[in-house]
UniProtKB/TrEMBL annotation:
Signal peptide region: none
CDD domains, sorted: YjgF_YER057c_UK114_like_1 (cd02199)
SUPFAM superfamilies: YjgF-like
Listed name of the protein: RidA family protein
Any Pfam family: YjgF_endoribonc
InterPro entries registered for this protein in UniProt: Endoribo_LPSP/chorism_mut-like, RutC-like_sf
Length: 162
């Protein structure tokens, strides 16, 4: 077994160990691509906390959605992001060199300041699935609204092997 194969099987094994199943990647809701691979750079479009293309969470944090639910929503966004990575790479997770950066948009009132705590749900899952290759830079910002009433949206930049 090559290092590439071991890295690929690690992601699949970790999903199972965590009791997770890789979802079918969501389709674009408008005129954009769910991902764009250019050379060794993979850009993943914004991912919402969807299950079977239906929002699992809607609302504003912490007004109508608890912080714990928002953390789970961020984790679900990261799982959907992982599904898009798999789609872009034909399931070859071993091609992922590094998740370079994720951007998190959190629907919240102006006085809310716990964005980082919520984003840890996404960061923790990516680290669990990809190990050191999942360690990333990140931006977390509060916003007034998001598509489909979502409380969180994530996008990512990933370095991949050609």
């Amino acid at each position: 077994m090559t290092d590439h194969d071991e890295e690929q099987s690690h992601v699949i094994e970790r999903l199972g160990e965590l009791g997770l199943t890789l979802p079918v990647p969501s389709r674009p809701a408008a005129n954009y691509r769910p991902y764009r691979l250019a050379g060794t750079m993979l850009h993943i479009a914004g991912q919402l906390p969807l299950v079977h293309n239906v929002p699992k969470y809607v609302g504003e944090v912490p007004t109508t959605l608890t912080i714990e639910d928002a953390i789970d929503a961020a984790r679900l966004c990261a799982l959907n992001l992982t599904a898009q990575i798999g789609a872009a790479l034909d399931g070859e997770f071993g091609r992922v060199e590094a998740i370079l950066k994720i951007n998190g948009f959190i629907r919240s009132p102006a006085e809310f300041t716990s964005h980082a705590r919520i984003m840890d749900g996404a960061s923790d899952l990516l680290a669990a699935l990809f190990g050191l290759r999942g360690a990333h830079a990140r931006t977390s910002v509060g916003v007034a609204s998001l598509p489909r009433g979502a409380p969180i949206e994530l996008d990512a930049i990933v370095a991949v092997r050609a």
